[in-house]
Amino acid sequence: MICSRPIAILLAVYNGEKYLSEQIDSILDQTNTSWTLYIRNDGSSDGTQRIIDSYLRRFPDRIVQIDRGGANLGCRGNFFRLLETVEADYYMFSDADDVWLPEKVQILFDAIRELERQYPALPCQAFADTIVCDEHLNVLEASHWRGAGINPDRFLSYNYMAVCCTAGGACSIYNRKVKDMIFPLTNDYLIYDFWIAINVAKRGKLKAVHKPLLKYRQHGAQTYGISYGAQNTLSHKLKRIGALVRQYRWEAQHHKDFGYGPKIKYYWYKFMTIVKIRMGRYR
To answer: N or C: where does the chain have the smaller number of CB atoms within 10 Å of the terminal CB?
Structure first.
């Protein structure tokens, strides 16, 4: 399926009736209009399809549904199915429960084109900061990077991105060379945006945009969430040291399995990431 506009926005949704309309409206309100929105409903059992149908009727030139009635593929499979189906110059992923700020598309589009001017032959990804909100969009952190003390410019290399991935899928824009690089897929379990980000870090170029461009909604029904506030303090982490040790052991094996390197490499870069964050917090 060929996108007639430069940017394909790929929205994967599963049982998203509670927040879906708000997210689609925020995309329709973008200052940049050089995009087409592609939606894939991952076998929802709630009113998600009725909401999609209402937008398809109202915005037939802007919104396209793919695989209507398709099988449930899970979060990773849903996004990659969208990506492999749509042909475009640039891609942006959208969760069904976030809200985009009006300038998100334009700022990221400008950022990736600047990156491409420097590296025209390479896969490129530009990514932004997020505003962390509760389910009602009350702000919990005005900047996730500042709240976590992470300056993403310090972690753009492959070795660091693999242990401190700051380039979330819903925060990013990718050029066509990224799609060409990752297909056909050779891995069947890594989270989609992590898998893309580490491959871009290894074989292309990343650019961090130091501005929050979406409201990231934290709620009980989401597949993945992020830590924020007190969860990122040293005292909180020390209280759950046992769980962290188990997590790091699992991640070390996980990284070895996908080819990152021996476990000692993971532990070294994890340690150095913690040192960089604690010794030079992002302010």
So the answer is: C
